[in-house]
Amino acid sequence: MDGEWPDNLKLAPGQPKKVCNVKIYDEKEGDYLDRLNALPEIISECRDSFQEAFAMNRLNARTADFYIQQCKRNPAPPKPWPDEDQSE
Questions:
Q1: Tens digits of per-residue pLDDT, 1-44?
Q2: Helix axes 46-55, 61-73, angle to 10 degrees
Q3: Who contacts 2 (Cβ-Cβ below 8 Å, separation ≥6)?
Q4: Rounded distance, CA 64 to CA 86, Å?
Q5: pTM assigned to the model
Q6: ∠32-33-35 over CA atoms, to 5°?
Q7: Distance between CA atoms of 56 and 69, rounded to whole angstroms?
């Protein structure tokens, strides 16, 4: 994946459109990137999700480490407190 998250993740050049039988990118049907871009609250679990995928043999160590490093480079934006004024 490439780009900034949330709202701007894209398929990195030269990467497959399908990984582990999951459509990462599909212009007609919507895709995994659309779902990721729509859910900014999951970034705090970014590293954990790739570590879990590695533990389940869904990713090799090199791939998992690449994405974990991406998580570290792109930390979660702070979540607003429920009583915080969002009018600005």
A1: 788 777 788 888 888 888 888 777 777 766 777 777 776 555 55
A2: 180
A3: 9, 10, 11, 12, 13
A4: 36
A5: 0.42
A6: 65
A7: 19
